[in-house]
Amino acid sequence: MKRSAKQAKADEENEARAAAIMARVRRMDIRTHRLVDDHLSGSYASVFKGRGMDFDRVRNYVPGDDVRVIDWNVTARTGDPFIKIFTEERELTILLMIDVSASSDFGSGSASKRELQTEIAGVLAASAIRNRDKVGLVLFSDEVELYIPPVKGRTNILRVIREALFFQPEHRGTDLVGALDFVNRVLRRRAVVFLISDFRLTRADGAKQLRSKLSVTGRHHDVIAVSVNDPLEGELPDVGILCVEDAETGDTVELDTSRAKVRESYRERAQQRRQDMNAAIRGSGVDHLEVTAAEGWLPQLIEFFRRRRTRA
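The chain above was modelled as a monomer; its predicted structure follows.
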């Protein structure tokens, strides 16, 4: 059966789009590996490796051994004291949680927040794969849109980048608490969880609920909250009457940005939202990395790794 001219054109457009997507994915893959080679080589391993201990075997107790590691079950069965021997856990599970809600598509510069989130995730994935760790992915809006269980292998980086950049979510809102609930259910063993989002919440009690859920998740996993900000979200330009639409709710409002009082009110409310969210994250006890697009995120990530290494 012959294809119609219309179908042939559609197929050609789809093939061209697929080729463009893969070219962009590979460019970002090359860039993330270059960033790891030039700036993060060794940092990831020193920060995240060796943070757990696995039980290996038991042996007879000898004077001087730490009595806190005596295996009382084996000691009771044999009548002789035995201690537990542990080995450093070398393989980690890294889970990248990426917010793909509608607000992530915003960007006042050359890249959207979603592109920035993807590049950060790509660098983290490349670092993990280089250390032979498993990497998984959760894309979420107000629902969990996609879950890729943690696996090894370089091809997994390409998939992480492709899905993070081009996945089309079915929902527009944000539910960080629901996404964390999902992770708590599917991850059976301790993992390093990067929660990458702009942390824009619409519910008045959202920050309080997030603090509680982050605290629960942090007791089982090593959680790092990565908040991605765009400078224009905290400042209004002086451009006269401006119609502003909330990307997630669709609500619109007209603002007269020529009035200094309007710009100042907008700035204060944006700062208050950010302060409330930062306080919620700090209060949960998990690590927090703030990234602002205009400032360049790589130095901020390097400094974050340095602080964690020093603290460890």
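The chain has two domains: 30-46+93-311, 53-88.
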